[in-house]
Amino acid sequence: MVSYLYSVTSIKDMDSADLIQLLNATISTDLYDTSHKILNTLKLTTEEKELHLWSPLKLLARKPSGIGNKSQPSVWERCLNSCFRGRFCNKAVMQASAHQLVDSLLKELRQGKNFSTLVCQYKLLVVEAAKVGNVEFLIILIRSYPHLIWEFDEEYGTLFHVAIKHRQERVFNLIYEIGVLKDNLASLYAEGNKSMLH
């Protein structure tokens, strides 16, 4: 129904504030394919991107089961989805679409200023994703900005301190995937001069 309404609505006549609200609404309701279409029609300046594209990313950071670990569904999933009109592999297609949406939003933000000027916003995304255990979002974010693993938030500490505080085992398991750096991460201290081992 939403796809039909989107196809008959004149989106190009809408202003950017309305499109951003529509983008947020489609993300909230897991309509990622429509979110992609809206994002592709958005024509924002660099300042507008920095102002408006953080809210869709925050919404995606708070959806732990919404993002898949693949940016494309497998051939088998696509075939089943097209043959049976989304009855079998719809979740896999939605998760892949959400993965692509996160990539697209980060790419849009990357076109603006450099990482150091927006580090506070990225730290907020890391904290939001770590609180709810959104590992896939964190992996996408850390692949784009590897420095984020070392970023330290005054209130929460590193993303692993947040994971421990909110008991998110899946996020904490990322330490094992990191490899050599895990010893250095365990020695970082958060509030109250406590390491992760306390």
From TrEMBL:
<protein>
    <submittedName>
        <fullName>Uncharacterized protein</fullName>
    </submittedName>
</protein>
